[in-house]
Amino acid sequence: LSRASAQGEGRALVELTQQPILVATANTLSQLEASRMQKAEALGPHHPDLAGLDMQIAATRASLASELRAALSSINEEVVSARAEVAQLTQDLDQLRQQASVQSSPQAEYLMLEQEAQSAREVYEAFLGRSKEMVDRVALLQPPVSFVSHASPPDAPTFPNRKKLLMGVVVLSLVAAGAAVFLRDLLSPGFGEIEQLRALIGLPLLTAIPRIAARDKHAVRRHVLDAPFSTASEAVRSLLAQLSLSAVQTGRGRVIAVTSAAGGEGKTSLTYWLSALARTGGQPVLVIDGDHRQSTGRRADVPAQRGLTELLTGTASISDVVQRDGETGVDFISAGAPGMFAFDPAEIARLRELLKTISQSYSLIIIDSPPLQCMPDGLVYGAVADQTVFVCRWLETSRAAVTSSIERLKSYGANVTGVVVSMAEESAGAFPGAPYSGQPRRLALPYQS
Description:
The chain is an alpha/beta fold. The chain has helices spanning 2-7, 10-17, 20-43, 48-141, 162-187, 194-201, 217-221, 223-226, 231-246, 267-280, 296-299, 308-313, 318-321, 345-358, 377-384, 399-411; strands at 205-210, 254-260, 285-289, 322-324, 331-333, 364-368, 387-393, 416-424. It has two domains: 2-100, no CATH class; 189-428, P-loop containing nucleotide triphosphate hydrolases (Rossmann fold, 3-Layer(aba) Sandwich). The chain has 16 helices and eight strands. Strands 1-8-7-2-6-3-5-4 form an eight-stranded mixed β-sheet, sandwiched between helices. The protein starts with a helix and ends in a 25-residue tail after the last strand. Residues 254-372 form the AAA domain. Belongs to the CpsD/CapB family. Keywords: ATP-binding, Coiled coil, Kinase, Nucleotide-binding, Transferase, Tyrosine-protein kinase.
């Protein structure tokens, strides 16, 4: 306002003051000046009409100046009053600040306590409402019951009846055990009872050999040497004695064929055990491997050489093929090169003559025959041997395989001395004795086959 008043800018003053009269007067002055400029351009600067306009413009300017002075005077009064009010407000503000600085700490503590009290009041009111609600609900749920008399407790529980329950459990256990045994015998392809085997085959059960707990195959082979008084060793020794007692005296060495229906039934391990025990008794023993699938020589850690195949074909002599196992001192003839033999009458006669010749030097000759269901060679070896031992694996060899294999052996003229059960559980009850340690033995590894 000071700048506008000093420079005489009336329009700026009008805009700043926003007075209606000043605005109207300023607008009239602007219109008159604009009209004069238009007429001056149109009629010339010395036209008579311009004189009247100049007089109006002068009067309007005088009126505007008068109104401006009045407005400025009013504004100055307002400014003075506003400054006085500002000074008073500033003084009041300073006093309030001083009072606030003195009262700020107690007031803040008061406000905090008031907030805590309000929170506690709200929590209390909530708990009070919940308590009233629970009291009302209990009153609604509580039945109108009155106490009449005391109930006397029973001497024994009425339920459950422990005696009947125990009897029921025992009966169910017996039924379940019987059903399990029946299902095992029904679903198992092999023999689960010794009496079943005896009744089906119609042959003597020579012995039952238990499973052997051994770390590897070599330990299984050496079992009869490392544990001569174990159940398995006693079973093999009993088998060897029975074979000796049932043999016909011919004045030469005996030929025994060990065979089975399928592979993996323990006939090779049984062959090794029989030969090892017979050799420890001082008998000269020879083992002939008739199974081309896996040679005894390789199992004895001896490289494969000429064997039975070369003997039958006439390409080697007996002295060329006989080897000795350094661990047991047992002589053996490996299977030799794989070959297919028709076993016509001439070949069978040659095999008989070969065994007759060998039996002059050995008191016991054991032939490890191939499985009857895999190769027909086992039937021929059984027919030319003095005695044939059939190996049946406990719970594994099917009944049909056992009966058919024994019938085929008999039809080919084999002298089947009896059956040996291999890898049997000790609960089978067919072992000739018990281990001296009195400890049960569990199987860790099946026999070789």
